UniProtKB/TrEMBL annotation:
Gene Ontology MF annotations: RNA binding
Organism (species): Brachypteracias leptosomus
A Pfam family recorded for this sequence: NOL11_N
Gene: Nol11
Keyword Transcription regulation: yes
Protein name per the record: NOL11 protein
Superkingdom per UniProt: Eukaryota
């Protein structure tokens, strides 16, 4: 059995994606670590990503006017990166290198088609003329002559394997509608050419291959919506120059009247393949989707619609799919289990519900999906079955005992339930003991609730969503619609909880939260029950009053700030009697933003769009926090969940980088910048003086440890 699991966004691909992938994605290759991938765009940039954190670890670009012409790869033996730009210029660099103009460069004598990097075998370079060299041999004489193996043929695809300790390279070519296959063993310097058996009225669109027991299995996706298998032995008993390879039908990509027009595919294991393409049915619009097929039993195991469209590219590493979806690069996990007939038809006893995500949209959910979802069904209904039969089977769901229902089935039963009943049932659902796939299921529950709210504006699930966020270890990638929904409704209480709990919030969403928090009025926040743990220790609050009291019991009125800049009319006294430019509710919200994780590279472009008035107000609050931190010996704010001084300073630097020119030109910000400059200068002087006596203090500490003082003693220590 195979199933598609949760997905998340790795990075954006548009001009504002932040990683230079505005021209689209050329290729994705494995990085030096199993959790790393190397992205090459269709321009001049390569980016190394850590998948689990969705953060870039490095980004390198060639100069303007130069173009990277084949995927950048990692040399797994040396942990170096290898790129080719303008077809012939080879570049090699390490992680610590920044400027590619200063790294190793070699100009080759022929155009490079692709570089394949093999663990244990090193990089192998394939030239457009069909010549092959290992990188070590090529670097000994970069200008060495490269032979032309193919004549008037165009390379369409290539792959490399390790057979023992010997690299094997394979590539396919096309000429006048005919396709050829080349297999070369590098150490033995043997090259074999084959002709691929022609298929009437169709041609191959995509290839993939794997090597096992000295036999290469080449899979070909044809334009007639079929996958064919070709076996190529590495041991050759004939000297014939060109043999014709016969192929056999492996899989027909059609099920119950619908046909999948595949664009790319990958092998998952000996019995499963994944195909990316568009599914079409008579009288319906085509829909792009990702599918997993069982080749042993010729069955479609699972599929996922991709409504935003794809580029037709699909990669698979470490049990994760990588593909473009709209303007982002999406990562989707999957699982493949032992292939058996029971699993193929969905009757494996210990299998989970095939695809919980298919239950997300209550409005588009059909009866047919309901039949497929029920684990306790007695037989599998084919998709061509009549609607009457399907309805009769759907009615049988009500007979299943509630305690035995899966998450997907519960969502289906609540499709038409009232808001009260739905809330009670879902609350009971999330309070149950966790199952192994509980996290993914809860993500689907959240998405289902949000979809229901979009179609029913009267539905208000705030308490339920807050309970899930606060009591479950969720993440943004498990329920990406949640924060967008909260932003749309300006639900600052839910946004605060998400910022405090989610470890993987994209910078675009963090910025959107910041903008909402700064724009909402203090009067509106007074009526909202927010978590004030991060501010309660330095802004004392009386919950039954709209005024903010100091520790000595006085209740000063809200007073206008000395800077009448028009950005805010009110300031608030803290328990030290000092002026805070914002109220405690807004301060608690901003503290949640300050404590969230981010990448400066991605956040800075968004911060530049922050309105000047909000930027100045935010900087005033950051300056206030900076002063408060500096008053303490340990440079830390009191209370729990308060931002650290490093977080405050990092945000101040980011904000000034994004808005420095605007703030310099604003008369209203002049006093703020001047005070900030004076305070920082005083801090620098203080730490400079402390550094001067640091050596003497360390020496005193050493002397004290060496001497054993009695009960009473007088010592005179001289600091020279």
């Amino acid at each position: 059995m195979a199933a598609l699991c949760e997905s998340f966004t790795l990075c954006g691909l548009g001009p504002s994606g932040g990683v230079g992938l505005g021209g689209g994605l050329l290729a994705l290759e494995p990085g030096p670590d199993p959790d790393h991938v190397l992205l090459t765009d269709r321009g001049r940039t390569a980016t190394l990503f850590k998948v689990s954190d969705q953060k870039p670890l490095g980004c390198w670009s060639v100069k303007h006017g130069q173009i990277i012409t084949c995927p950048v790869v990692c040399n797994f033996e040396t942990h170096e990166y290898i790129a080719v730009h303008d077809h012939k210029v080879l570049r090699i660099w390490k992680n610590q290198d920044i400027n590619l103009d200063k790294v190793f460069k070699a100009t080759l004598s022929a155009d490079v088609y692709r570089i394949h990097s093999l663990p244990g075998g090193g990089p192998v370079v394939l030239f457009r003329g069909g010549g092959v060299r290992t990188l070590d041999v090529l670097l000994e004489a970069p200008q060495q002559e490269i032979e032309n193996v193919i004549s008037d043929e165009v390379i369409k695809w290539s792959e490399a394997f390790m057979e023992g300790h010997q690299p094997v390279l394979m590539f396919t070519t096309e000429k006048d509608g005919e396709f050829f296959v080349y297999v070369q063993k590098l150490k033995m310097n043997s090259l074999h050419k084959y002709k691929l058996e022609q298929q009437e009225l169709s041609k191959p669109l995509s290839f993939t291959a794997y090597l096992k027991n000295q036999i290469i299995t080449l899979l070909c996706l044809y334009s007639n919506n079929s996958v064919y298998k070709v076996l190529i032995p590495l041991q050759h008993n004939t000297e014939e120059e060109e043999q014709t390879l016969s192929k056999s039908l492996l899989l027909n990509l059609s099920v119950s009247g619908s046909v999948l027009k595949g664009t790319s595919f990958v092998v998952l294991d000996k019995d499963h393949i994944a195909v990316l393409g568009s599914r079409t049915a008579s009288g319906e619009e085509s829909k792009e989707c990702l599918t997993i097929w069982n080749t042993k039993f010729q069955t479609l195991q699972t599929s996922k619609e991709l409504p935003l469209g794809t580029s037709g590219q699909l990669w698979c590493y470490e049990e994760k799919f990588f593909f473009t979806h709209g303007k982002v690069l999406t990562v989707m996990m999957y699982k493949c289990e032992t292939s058996s007939l029971a699993a193929a038809v969905g009757k494996l006893k210990d299998s989970q519900t095939p695809d919980v995500c298919s239950f997300v949209n209550w409005d588009t959910l059909g009866d047919e999906e309901l039949v497929v979802s029920v684990e306790s069904r007695e037989s599998v209904a084919p998709k061509a079955e009549s609607r009457m039969t399907l309805r009769s089977k759907s009615n049988s769901v009500a007979e299943v005992q509630p305690e035995n229902l899966s998450v997907g089935q519960i969502l289906l039963n609540l499709k038409d339930a009232s808001t009260t009943v739905c809330g009670d049932e879902l609350t009971e659902l999330v309070s149950k003991a966790q199952t192994p796939d509980f996290q993914a299921n809860i993500g689907c529950v959240v998405t289902a609730v949000i979809n229901r709210c979009k179609t029913n504006p009267k539905c208000d699930p705030q308490n339920f969503l807050l309970q899930i966020v606060q009591t479950r270890d969720l993440s943004y990638s498990l329920c990406p619609d949640l924060m967008a929904f909260a932003l749309e409704r300006e639900d600052v209480r839910l946004l605060q909880a998400c910022l405090q709990r989610f470890p993987d919030i994209p910078e675009e969403i963090t910025y959107a939260c910041l903008k909402v928090f700064l724009s909402i009025s203090e009067a509106s926040l007074q009526r909202i029950d927010l978590n004030l743990e991060s501010v309660i220790c330095y802004i004392d609050i009386e919950f039954n009053s709209k005024e903010f009291k100091t520790e000595n019991g006085f209740s000063p009125k809200v007073r206008p700030h000395a800077w009448s800049n028009g950005f805010t009319k009110e300031t608030y006294l803290t328990n030290d009697g000092e002026l805070c430019p914002i109220g405690p509710q807004k301060a608690a919200l901003l503290n949640a933003v300050l404590r969230s994780a981010y990448s400066e590279t991605f956040l800075l472009p968004h911060l530049k769009n922050l309105p000047a008035q909000q930027a100045v107000l935010f900087l005033r609050y950051l300056y206030y926090l900076y002063v408060k931190c500096s008053e303490k010996i340990n440079t830390a704010l009191p209370g729990t969940s308060s931002p650290t001084i490093n977080q405050i300073m990092d945000w101040m630097c980011l904000l000034l980088d994004a808005h420095f020119t605007v703030m310099v030109m604003l008369p209203e910000a002049k006093d703020l910048l001047s005070n900030l400059h004076k305070f920082v200068r005083a801090q620098v002087r203080l730490y400079s003086e402390l550094n001067k006596i640091e050596g003497s203090l360390r020496e005193l500490q050493r002397l004290n440890h060496q001497k054993e003082t009695q009960t009473y003693s007088i010592e005179v220590l001289e600091i020279i």
